[in-house]
Amino acid sequence: MNPSGLKLAYLCAIINAMIIGFSFLFTKIALEFAEPMDTLTFRFAASFAAMSIPVLMGRVRLNYRGKKLYKVLLLATLYPLGFFTLQSYGLKYAASSEGGILFAFTPVLTMLLAFLFLKETTTLLQKLSIGLSVSGVLFIFIMKGSRIDWSNMTGIILLFLSCLAVAGYSVLARRLLKSFSPAEITYVMLGIAFLSFLAVSLAGHAATGTLSQLFSPLASGTFIAAILYLGILSTLVTALSSNYALSKIEASKMSVFSNLSTIVSIAAGALLLGEEVRLYHIAGSVLIIAGVMGTNLLGKKGERQVLNRAKAG
Fold this sequence. Notes:
Elements: H1 3-31, H2 36-56, H3 69-93, H4 96-103, H5 106-118, H6 124-143, H7 153-176, H8 182-208, H9 221-248, H10 251-255, H11 260-273, H12 279-297, H13 300-312
Helix pairs in contact: 1-9, 1-11, 2-8, 2-9, 3-7, 3-8, 4-7, 5-7, 6-12, 8-9, 11-12
């Protein structure tokens, strides 16, 4: 593989995690002005419009001729449709902290699905590294006093399914990227998501007679700023970057980068909201970073080097 392409893929994975880490803050801001489904509608409207401009200008070339487009439609049902729908309804019954705890296990689910469907194998040290990254996220949430309330089984199941949808997306995208470009997959995903969420939002407002309220949040500059971040950076850029990274990196290696968003969320809270950073935040962040590095560096070659050093010692 081209070394420069691989470096760019890892850079995309890191940027992806950083943007997502800040997205939680902007989502909170947007939800102060609009309902969740309306927020998703505007979010994907912004992302689809932003990508449509270079497509219509011919700067981004798309070619779907002779390709199995239905597979991309299936991909879109997993993410963003499946993920956001399951997450939204899951958070109705469970706390956001429970969602964060369950989402930490996404790399584990991705590793299992990648093994089953892509025949991707991981070494023992990589498996331990993925576990280390997950434990770092869990440590932070547990030290914050977060727990999973097993009485909220409906919410827990829905949130687990949302994690499974993301894992399934990573695995299926990895396969489809052999015949589709990252831009071709991203454009279909964004278009389907925008039209689907718009239809649901319009139907909901029409049923309650509040159709005029759909566009009222646009009167706020703060809401527009939050939507632009969520739509352009947190949706369009992350979709393109993650799809590009998945075209170069194994799904299990790519997925573990998602846990870095926890560190970015902590930093965002400290820098923008004045939240206190405690010792357990730092300890958990070290575990996460060590897990991400181990997963991507301790392949078969890296594992042999570690074992040889251990024997030499």
